[in-house]
Amino acid sequence: VLKQYATPKPGNNKSNRLTMSYYRKSGIFMESGHIYSKEKGYLGRAHFMGFGLEHDYSEALNLLAIPKTHEVTLCEFPVPKVVKLLKFNLLNNGVYNRNIHFTQFSKNGKYLMAGNDFSLAIVDVASGEHIYAFKYMDEKNRDMTLNVASFSGDGNNVLILTTGHLIMIDLVNKKEKWRKEHKEFRVSEYG
Prior knowledge:
Blueprint lengths: L1 E5 L11 E6 L4 E4 L2 E4 L3 E5 L10 E3 L4 E6 L2 E6 L5 E6 L14 E4 L5 E5 L3 E6 L5 E6 L10 E6 L5 E6 L2 E6 L4 E7 L10
Antiparallel strand pairs: 1-2, 2-3, 3-4, 4-5, 6-7, 7-8, 8-9, 10-11, 11-12, 12-13, 14-15, 15-16, 16-17
């Protein structure tokens, strides 16, 4: 899966970005809500509130995850038929809202992760059961920023990038495998 988040303006403006995703196995290409297929060309446009950087597509399930505030709607693809609604109870720091800023399916489609700047939650797609929750805080119990997270290829681990740490979570045992301080690695703000 290739995902590119490009900003049309120079500088640190992260809120005004275009989103492009290409799913090699299925030949699906999405660009700012427009959906294309390798075989059929233009399929249409997704007209969902909240469709944008936060969406994700599961090739294994042929479902599109579209978040709105604290819920994720799962839709069949490319015809937007709602299959399921999943609720997420993400944390906030009292200043910012708890809206979902990103979603990601595991490669096998078993899990869906949703997160914001302070926390993430992972649910079993079939049952809707919450299997893991993570809140990022430093050693002084202050909220820090959770930048991005991603499933491993087998879906058994989650790698989380925060402002201060790179963290590997073991989903099988539901515990932290390791944590590296920011000074031990270097990642640009755009990954």
